[in-house]
Protein: Glucose-6-phosphate 1-dehydrogenase
Organism: Acidimicrobium ferrooxidans
Amino acid sequence: MTQRIPFVLFGATGDLARRMLLPALMSVRERHADYQLDIIGVAGSRFDDESFRAHVVEILTKDKRCSREEAETFAKTISYLSGDYHDPNLFDALAARVSPDERPIVYLAIPPSLFEVVIEQLARAGFDEHARIMVEKPFGRNLADAQRLSKVLASHFRPEQIFRIDHFLGKEAVQNLLVFRFANSILEPLWNRNYVSRIELNMLEAFGVEGRGAFYDGVGVVRDVVQNHLLQLLTLLLMEPPLAMSGRDLTDQRTKVLQAIRPIRPDDAVLAQYRGYRLEAGVADDSSTPTYAAIRLEVNSWRWAGVPVFVRAGKGLRETRTEAVVEFRRPPTLIFGTGEGEQHQPEPNAFIFHFKPDGRIELLMQSKVPGPRLISRPTMLTVSSSDDSARSDDAYAQLIDDVVRDDQTRFATQESVEAGWRIVDPVLEAPAESTYVVGSDGPREADRLVADVHGWYR
Ligand SMILES: NC(=O)C1=CN([C@@H]2O[C@H](COP(=O)(O)OP(=O)(O)OC[C@H]3O[C@@H](n4cnc5c(N)ncnc54)[C@H](OP(=O)(O)O)[C@@H]3O)[C@@H](O)[C@H]2O)C=CC1
Ligand SMILES: O=C1O[C@H](COP(=O)(O)O)[C@@H](O)[C@H](O)[C@H]1O
């Protein structure tokens, strides 16, 4: 029998719902026949059930990702409640539609400034006992704020009811990184400070703030993607092997990585803004909000001490690419030539984990140039190909299904959120110190961070 589960979507008319959550909810419906989510959108715009369904069909068919018929079938599972989140009557109306005893899932895709009021109202309306709450990032504006919000949540909901979503943890390629690390025993002896010379994470985006200027300008790149997505991704690269791939030990191992990272020294961060950002709708004329960050991190753990970790994230850059590079030490002496005068060291071996636009894993090796001489050249091995069709909304679909199954494994814990804020805290209020041209590789100033490690990984 198909189980029916109420799914309340606060922020149903917003950007995240349009681009990610509604497509994800449709995939959930297609993939899982054992349950059906009865979706109730809750937002300020004045729709009724019928006009909201038409709005959803329009969104889902716009880029031809599904047929009108499929979208209409999905839209039948959706209803809508209009009102202001400050108005208690809205929550009473919601409680009249959804029985809290059905363990509804409540997704808060709303501006961070409204979390508190919505949490309080949900609790007052009786959702505190059984509802499962999905909370979007960024969770708070800084450490103190995250701790305060956590107290508000914890005063009404038990830990097992709270799911702090970071969609990077639901990405297929990110899951593959975990399997790659812990299902291949040959890697473990190499995965430490004795063999690895540096780690680099890049989240480069060729687009700007895409209509989200008002939100982004109060947040900036560090709060938007570094404190959450990139630090969570780093935990999977650097963590100790957990006892099992689910449960508390996995989340604890992830958190320990963040707890071992030193708060960023201001000199170890370069923050910049793309030219023309101030002209974006919703952005202040004199904004100094950074849209680019390059950061050098230090991990004070037995395994990683001394291995520099570089994180770069930015909008308005030359290309869209998210990847992690694990670079190994160079051979101790040069015994083969590399052609071209034979003076250069061969490039060091490296694993490159791609997350966007695809999920390949590559290994850079050296091999012999055919011919009479012993000359080496780089050879890229693709060790794991990817499902190129994997999209970001698939990650949300995965995580929504996890909540249905009460599985916290792929969610951020409060401890990891706080550890993340502790790391970025010293640079949170720092202004962009330079600008860069849209379509470039970012500010040249960032190169100083990698001066001692032969520059950024190409
Ligand atoms: N957009 C993205 O790519 C991402 C967003 N997030 C997070 O998701 C959350 C939502 O972001 P996003 O969708 O971009 O935000 P939007 O500003 O696009 O959407 C906000 C939503 O909240 C509703 N809303 C706001 N104030 C009220 C109110 N007082 N009463 C009733 N409804 C209200 C809006 O309804 P209406 O307009 O109908 O009034 C709208 O549905 C944020 O926490 C953000 O950090 C996380 C990752 C990526
Ligand atoms: O959370 C966010 O993520 C997106 C990038 O996510 P992806 O899965 O498409 O790579 C980013 O563009 C956005 O600014 C940020 O809020």
Notes: Residues 11-17, 43-45, 84-86, 109-112, 114, 136-138, 212, 215 surround NDP (ligand 1) (CB under 6 Å). The radius of gyration is 24 Å. The CA atoms of residues 264 and 424 lie 6 Å apart.
